[in-house]
């Protein structure tokens, strides 16, 4: 695998126009690039961490929430997926699942090496899917791994995959999700996909209103477990129906094995937004 070393975080302001151009030029492919983006000396800005914690519902602390390093990896993910040899246009891709494994607690005062690559292009009933793997390392040992699964619609097998039956919603909490949460999360994450920002821009992509970021819903769900999480765990989610903003959502959780299962539903009708689990390592 070829390694592309970066000395600073890629500029998202220059990558979004590149993503737009890619949507006009790229149509698909059968192989993913064998390039890994690597950035050493990654450190956390305390003010940025505090802003992220406030938007997502975490308490202020010098221990990083398990979802926070995804924000550090996002510019490298964007850089990877806007390269000329990446087969799919970034716009229109659907984030269908995310699995994060934290091998130990990560602290604000640490310095990390970040690695990002794409792998495992495979069929999906609605098109093709693949994984973007992001890793944080300390002294060459992975301490955190993020697997983001993306779907490129079109030319799918049509064969439905087996899914477990979701429980009927019995909420542990009701979320009142404000209409500006997409813009607020975009400020801390850098993810300024127009479907999250305003109703007008979301309607251009077929949504009746702006929708919440999937990674915000995952982070807000994880925040509900603060104070109960072990130092090492995996939090795994599948993104279902989008959260149309503003929203009223029902969050429910229950113990399961060595951890918990959780779901987020539309509070007004039984349509799932997210299902997930937290499992101790």
Account of the 3D structure:
This protein is of the alpha+beta class. The protein has six helices and eleven strands. It has helices spanning about 10-25, 45-55, 70-80, 180-190, 200-205, 215-225; strands at about 1-5, 35-40, 95-100, 110-125, 125-140, 140-155, 175, 235-240, 245-255, 260-265, 270-280. An eleven-stranded mixed sheet has the order 1-2-4-5-6-3-8-11-10-9-7, covered by helices on one side. α1 (about 10-25) crosses α3 (about 70-80) and α2 (about 45-55) runs antiparallel to α4 (about 180-190). The longest helix is centred in the first third of the chain and has 14 residues, at about 10-25. It is globular, with a radius of gyration of 18 Å. The two termini are about 30 Å apart.
The largest sheet, given as strand count, sense and whether it forms a barrel, is:
11 strands, mixed
How much strand?
35-45%
Shape: globular
Helix/sheet category: alpha+beta
Q: Estimate the mean pLDDT confidence.
A: 91
> What are the segments in which pLDDT stays under 50 over at least 5 consecutive residues?
none
Instruction: Give the helix tally.
Output: 6
How many whole angstroms does the radius of gyration measure?
18 Å
Helix content: 10-25%
Ends: how far apart?
29 Å
Widest beta sheet: strand line-up = 1-2-4-5-6-3-8-11-10-9-7
H-E order? EHEHHEEEEEHHHEEEE
Question: Using DSSP, what is the number of strands?
Answer: 11
């Amino acid at each position: 695998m070829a390694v592309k070393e970066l000395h600073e975080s890629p500029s998202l302001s220059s990558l979004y126009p590149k993503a737009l151009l890619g949507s006009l030029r790229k149509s698909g492919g059968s192989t993913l690039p064998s390039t890994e983006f690597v950035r050493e000396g990654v450190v956390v800005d305390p003010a940025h961490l505090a802003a992220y914690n406030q938007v997502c519902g975490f308490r202020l602390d010098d221990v990083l929430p398990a979802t926070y390093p995804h924000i550090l990896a996002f510019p490298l993910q964007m850089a990877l997926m806007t390269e000329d040899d990446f087969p799919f246009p970034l716009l229109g891709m659907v984030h269908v699942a995310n699995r994060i494994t934290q091998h130990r607690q990560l602290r604000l005062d640490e310095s990390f090496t970040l690695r990002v690559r794409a792998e495992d292009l495979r069929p999906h009933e609605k098109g093709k899917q693949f994984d973007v793997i992001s890793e944080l390392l300390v002294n060459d040992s992975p301490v955190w791994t993020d697997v983001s699964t993306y779907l490129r619609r079109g030319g799918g097998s049509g064969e439905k995959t087996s899914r477990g039956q979701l429980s009927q919603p019995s909420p542990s909490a009701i979320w009142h999700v404000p209409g500006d949460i997409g813009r607020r999360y975009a400020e801390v994450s850098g993810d300024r996909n127009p479907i999250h920002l305003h109703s007008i821009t979301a309607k251009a992509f077929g949504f009746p209103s702006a929708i919440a970021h999937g990674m915000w819903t995952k982070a807000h769900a994880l925040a509900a477990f603060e104070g109960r999480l072990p130092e090492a765990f995996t939090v795994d989610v599948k993104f279902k129906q989008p959260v149309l903003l503003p929203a009223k959502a029902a969050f429910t959780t229950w113990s399961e094995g060595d951890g918990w299962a959780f779901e987020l539903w539309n509070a007004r009708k039984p349509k799932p937004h997210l299902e997930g689990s937290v499992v101790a390592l």
